[in-house]
Design brief:
Blueprint: E1 9-13, H1 17-28, E2 32-36, H2 44-48, E3 52-53, H3 57-63, E4 66-69, H4 74-82, H5 87-90, E5 96-99, H6 105-117, E6 121-124, E7 127-128, H7 130-136, E8 139-144, H8 147-160, E9 161-168, H9 172-200, H10 205-212, H11 220-231, H12 240-256, H13 262-276, H14 287-291
Parallel strand pairs: 1-2, 1-4, 2-3, 4-5, 5-6, 8-9
Antiparallel strand pairs: 7-8
Helix pairs in contact: 1-7, 9-11, 9-12, 9-13, 12-13
This protein binds NADP nicotinamide-adenine-dinucleotide phosphate.
Length: 297
Amino acid sequence: MNASTEKMTVGFIGLGIMGQSMAGHILAAGHDLCVYNRTRAKADDLVARGAVWKDSPGDVAAACDVVITIVGYPKDVEEVYLAPGGIVERARDGAILIDMTTSSPELAQRIAAAAADRGLAALDAPVSGGDVGARAGTLAIMVGGDAAAFDKAMPLFDAMGGKIVHMGAAGAGQHTKMANQIAIASTMLAVSESLSYAKAAGLDQTAVLDAIGTGAASSFLLNGLGPKMVAGDYAPGFFVHHFVKDMSIALAEAERMQIDLPGLTLARGLYQRLVDGGFGEDGTQALYRVYTQMTGA
Ligand code: NAP
C-alpha cells in the first residue's frame, strides 16, 4: 500500500474463479479482509493468508467499510443485498457497496436506491478480462453510481484492475458490460467459424491462427481461445451458463430499448444448445463443439 492509500476493512463475497483472485489482490494491497462464500472451502486459501471468515453476507457487511460482491446470477445478487438481514440492511453507516457480478442494470439501480434510503452508496462495477485478468490484476472495470464513492473506492479498483472507468449513474456499469458481452458474442461465433472453415479447407488450424493472429482479425479471443478450441480444451475460464445469462440480460435490455441485435440473438441460440447438451460448465470456447456437432472432438 502506498503512503497515500488509506487502509480499509474490506468485505468480499463470492470466491469463485474471479473472486478468489480479486480478493487476493485486496489482501496483498494491505487491506484487512473479511470473506464469505456459499461453499466455505473456497475461502480456505484466503483465510490461510490472513482473511477473516464471516458466516453470512450480513455479517460481512456489519464488519466492513467497503463490501465487494462477485457472485453468479442476478438472483444471487438480489439475495445477498436485499434479503432480510442482507448487506443493505446490515451495512455500517457510510459504507460503500460494490457489486462486480455481471448482473442486470435494473437490479443495480434498485440496489442503489435501497442503499440510498439508508444513506449508503452502491456502485455497479462489473469486470472484463476473464480469469487471466483477475489473476494478473489487470481487469477492465466499468463503474456506475455515485462519483464520490467511486473516487473513494479507486485504490481497491486499482488493486484488481488495469482500466477503470466511471461510466455514469447506477446501472451504467452494467450497461457497459452488456456492450462488452455483445461484442464478445459475435466474436466467438467468428472465431469458431474461422477455425471450422480452416479445418474443412484442409489447413493446419494452429498455423492459421499464427498467420492471422497479428493481422486485422487479431483479437484477445482469437489468440486466447482459438488455440483452446483447436486443442479441444474446454476447461472453464468463463462458464457457458454465465455467458447465456449475460446474453439474456442484454437481449432483454435490447427488447426494452426496441433495438434488434441479430448477431446476439444467433449467439445466444447456439450457446443455449450447449447448455441443453449438458455443456454449461464448459468454458465459452466450447462454442466450437457446436461446429463439431457436439461430438466433443
Ligand atoms: P463462479 O466461479 O461460479 O463464482 C461465483 C461464486 O459466488 C461461487 O463461489 C459461488 O459459490 C458464490 N455465490 C453464488 N451465489 C452466492 C450467494 N448467494 N452467496 C454467497 N456466495 C455465492 O463464477 P465466476 O466465473 O467467478 O463469475 C462470477 C461472476 O462474474 C458471474 O456473474 C460472471 O458472469 C462474471 N464474470 C466472469 C468472468 C470469467 O471469466 N469467469 C469474467 C467477467 C465476469 P459456490 O462456490 O458455492 O458456487
